[in-house]
Structures are given as C-alpha cells and as structure tokens.
Amino acid sequence: MPDYRKLIAKNDIDGAITALLALDCKFSDDISLLSSQYKEWYHQFVMGNHPPEYERNRIVFALLYIITEIEKESASGLKRKRLDFISNTELSLALSNKKLGILKKEGPIDVFMKWFIAEDFNAFRKLANEEKHNNGKSISLSFILANLEYETLLGITSFWKTPDDVKSYIYHQSRVIEYLFSGWQKYDDYRSDYSDKLETAIQQDESNYKQLFKAGFLGVLGGVVSSYFMNSKVFQVMQEYETDMDDDISYDDLWDDD
Fold it and tell me: Which residues of the chain have pLDDT under 70?
C-alpha cells in the first residue's frame, strides 16, 4: 500500500490523490471532489493568480482525515485511540481552514463598501450615522450615490459595468437590508477580528499536529478526543465567535455549503 502521508509530506498531492482514487472505499466520491478542487487551486497557482493557501490546506487536511479514517478500519485498541485523536485533529484543521475561506471571501457588497470607505469615508460615516436615527435607513443615500465617481471602482471589479449598475445594486440592497452601512461595518469588524485570531490558532494547531508525529504520540491518550478540543486553539476561537457552535464537529460540516 502506498504511503499516502509521505506523498503529501513531499508535496506530491496529485500522487496521493491518484493512489487514494485507486482504492475502492466509501470516500471515493469525496476524494474525487477534492481532486477537482486541488486541480483548480493548482491551476490558479501555476497561472500566478495567488490562490489562498488556506484553500490548499483545507484540501490537504481533508485528505489526511480520509487517510486516517481508512487506517482506522483495520485498527483496534491503543492504535485505534491514537488514530481517533489524529483524525479529529485533521478534521478540525480542515474545517477551520474552510471557515477562514468563508470569512475572507468578498462579495459585491464588500467590494463596494471597502471602495466607498477609501473613496469618501465621511460620506460613509454620514450614511451609517443616519441609519441609527432613521430606523435603519439613510436619508442622504440618493444624493451621495449621485455624486460619487465610480471609475476606480469599475476598474477593480467585474461585478458591475456602469455607474448606474452600481447605484441600482446599492439602492436595492438598502431597500431589503436595514442598517446596510452601519450593519456591514459591524460585521466586517467582527469578521476581521475572527479571521485574524483563527489564522493564528490554525498555525498553532498545525504546529501541535506536526509534533504529534515527532513525539511518537506518547502521553496524550488520556481523554483522547475531548483533550484535543480542550487544548485546541482553533476550537476555542470558533466557540468564542460562534455561540451556537456544537461541542462536536462532524465530517458532514466539511461539505455543507455556507
């Protein structure tokens, strides 16, 4: 049987995926999906488009989790407990990298707001303050949008083609979303703080994960799975920012759309 972990350690992700796809196992569909995602990530990398590293890490840790789950099928006793711990670590790191991608993803409203703040912060602040005194609505919105210069915005994004496209989009958003400007600013502060702490926590947990193998995993089997979550920086950060988060994580969470 190929040493899948060694292939990944050598950065031969394609080789590991090819070897895993040769298996007839319950994870075959998931491996195929991860294969497609990695090929797209690598294509963007080769093209010089600087795809995010957290996307690659999500794929790699998902593959490592699958490898461990396959190993568990023929394991028992102390070895099974060891693999339980490792698989939960890998799943947590895969999920946290996925969450980091969600936090950092920018849609049209994010692109507009960040451009708007850079273009005319005083106008942005005026609209946000008006919302606080007018039940979530900005009375100066039409005037301010009519007097903005949109050339730089249209030069950095393909979301809109003309200034009228931008204004129509923001008008629509303001009709369906109360506290559009102040609410976005509050969420962006939350998102920025969360993603900064999560990145740091991921780095710490990845370092601890590597130490598991260097140390031979001695002395860490007491309270196998629960002990990881008590000490996991990733888990602590996610619980801090997601008050409805369960104490248990699920493999299905890796494939859910957010």
Answer: 1, 212-231, 243-251, 256-258
Cα–Cα distance list, 171 to 96, 115, 140, 141 (Å):
35, 17, 12, 8
Residue 144: name the closest of 172, 171, 165, 162 by CA.
171
Please, which residues have CB within 8 angstroms of residue 116's CB and are 6 or more apart in sequence?
A: 123, 124, 148
pLDDT at site 75: 87
Find out whether 145 and 127 touch, Cβ atoms under 8 Å: no
Residues contacting residue 9 through CB under 8 Å, at least 6 positions apart? none
| Tens-place pLDDT, residues 90-138 | 999 999 999 999 999 999 999 999 999 999 999 999 999 999 999 999 9
Residue 161 CA from chain centroid, whole number: 29
Tokens of 153: 């915005």
Taking every pair of Cα atoms in the chain, the longest distance, rounded to a whole number of angstroms, is: 71
- Domain spans, the chain: 4-105+195-254, 108-189
Chain centroid to CA 239? 15
Return d(Cα 132, Cα 139) in angstroms, integer: 11
pLDDT at 65: 95
CA distance 30 to 19: 14
Tokens of 220: 């860490």
The pLDDT of residue 243 is 66
Q: Which pTM does this prediction carry?
A: 0.85
DSSP codes, 34-93: HHHHHHHHHHHHHTT----HHHHHHHHHHHHHHHHHHHHTT--HHHHHHHHHHHHHHHHH
